User: Fold this.
Amino acid sequence: MTSSTPLSCENMLRQAAEQIGGDSPRLDAELLLNHVTGLSRTSFRAWPEREVTADQAAEFHALVSERAAGKPVAYLLGHQEFWSLPLLVSPSTLIPRPDTECLVEVALSLPVPAAARVLDLGTGTGAIALALASEQRDWQVTACDCVDEAVTLARRNAKELGLSVEVMQSSWFYGLTPGKFDLIVSNPPYIANTDHHLREGDVRFEPSSALVSGVDGLDDIRQIVEQAPDWLEPGGWLLMEHGFEQAGAVRSLLETRGFLAVESRKDYGDRDRMTLGRWAGRSEPSNQQTGERHAQ
Assistant:
């Protein structure tokens, strides 16, 4: 992309795609040019000869350079769609993934009361909580996160979308107002701290606190499984996303803790990506009830 190149959309997109590389370079380039110009991706194809201003070209080139260096498109745009909801994102939160929509689908299929009380642990952008609230307006949805910036962002997303979700700052259950829920959902950190994927692709730019959970990736899931019964109504559900190779371990944790109807469900790639269980027994007091704090 030199200064002598005509500033037509097609020329810019073609050269940007070459610079970006990766799995979807043309799509990335079109999203960035749409962001800069306000022109639709369809218009790029219908009128490829359309030119942009020098200022727009300069802004586009800067964004392309950042994308080529690996920065996620969602962070460059400042937003990401999830469950057809436009969500604001920032480097302080995990970028919502399409496969997490499978967790929303499973949550919506569970037998819970019409006015169910629902808790989303580690909400990040608020994606799961807001998706559930958009589908079930009678549900009382609470979301929490331990990161200040995430709490602020999730509240802003709820306000922008006009959805009634209470967002609280809490490290897992610590800091929540005592109460019981019919459904607890979570997409917690579940990557082992030695996993090579942490040094590859978009993940390099995302907050490690939303990704990493001990030597086997299960530290946070263990904590949630241990404490969740104290917060569940009899017959209430716990549903968590996890790594596709962790399903057996997560089922074992739930069964050992006393959950019933434990099973794993598939993501869009037909991999075991989430596991759920139903609480029907009495709970022994966990550490959160004695005042001990666990860092999320």
